[in-house]
Amino acid sequence: GAVVSQHPSWVICKSGTSVKIECRSLDFQATTMFWYRQFPKQSLMLMATSNEGSKATYEQGVEKDKFLINHASLTLSTLTVTSAHPEDSSFYICSARDLGTVYEQYFGPGTRLTVT
Amino acid sequence: KQEVTQIPAALSVPEGENLVLNCSFTDSAIYNLQWFRQDPGKGLTSLLLIQSSQREQTSGRLNASLDKSSGRSTLYIAASQPGDSATYLCAVSDNNDMRFGAGTRLTVKP
Predict the structure, then answer these.
(1) Long-range contact set of residues B56-63: C-beta below 8 Å, sequence gap at least 24
(2) Which of B6-20, B51-65, B88-102 has the lowest mean pLDDT?
(3) Looking at chain A, which residue has its C-alpha nearest residue B86?
(4) A67, A68, B54, B95: which could join A80 in a potential S-S bond, CB 3.0 to 4.6 Å?
(5) Cβ of B96 and A49 within 8 Å?
(6) Angstrom distance (rounded) from CA B62 to CA B10
(7) Rounded CA separation A88/A47 (Å)
(8) Which residue did the predictor score with more confidence, B109 or A101?
(9) Could you say which of B49, B89, B103 has the minimum Cβ distance to residue A104?
């Protein structure tokens, strides 16, 4: 089956620093990748949709200057949390869409971000 | 904008019971519907994917149905086991993205 990896799996950073999270589709090409955020005991909330080679589309309420998304290749998308604050602490999950399988999305294992 | 609702929010049953989780969505123009399982602090495990043209999918003790016209799906779990304890998420995909319900937190007591 299609595999999506995320790196790192967990990260702790100090308030005010930036953190980059990578999302890779390992055995298929993903023209579209999605970034979700999940707070404790809540569901996944879509943050943004990124298409290879173009700017990401952000959901309402998500600051594009704070959550920088780059989708430079068909297998890699990155999410950079800039000037992180404790309220950014969350579980970030990416997914990749394989158009060859009728819009099925494959999910990464998630990245636990803790901002101290 | 698609809205996905899951009922109940939490469910506790004794081992061996059959149970049904419900999912409803507001826009019937979907490509597929997917049921996931999530253990605490973990990522998502895909359980069943139903394409919009299908009415149900089965995998082992799990059966998921889809009634696109009424905007409903159910996940049936037969002969529940303590290992089934987890949060179950329903998600629908359209041509833009995938939207999730809030989940049903299932506890199966030995």
Answers:
(1) B62/B35
(2) B88-102
(3) A41
(4) A68
(5) yes
(6) 18
(7) 13
(8) B109
(9) B49
* Interior angle at CA A78, CA A77 and CA A80, nearest 5: 160
Residue A53: per-residue pLDDT? 81
Q: Are strands A90-98 and A111-115 parallel, antiparallel or unpaired?
A: antiparallel
Task: Confirm if A56 and A48 have CB atoms less than 8 A apart.
Answer: yes
Backbone torsion region of residue B84, taken as left when φ is above 0, otherwise alpha when ψ lies between -120 and 50, otherwise beta: alpha
Place of tokens 């999940």: A38
Q: How far apart are CA B16 and CA B108, in angstroms?
A: 9
* Nearest residue in A to B48, CA atom: A104
In Å, how far is A42's CA from the nearest CA of chain B? 6
CA–CA dist A5, A23 (Å, integer): 6
Q: Given an 8 Å threshold on Cβ–Cβ distance, is A103 in contact with B49?
A: no
Calculate the dihedral angle through the C-alpha atoms of B62, B65, B66, B72, rounding to the nearest 10 degrees: -90
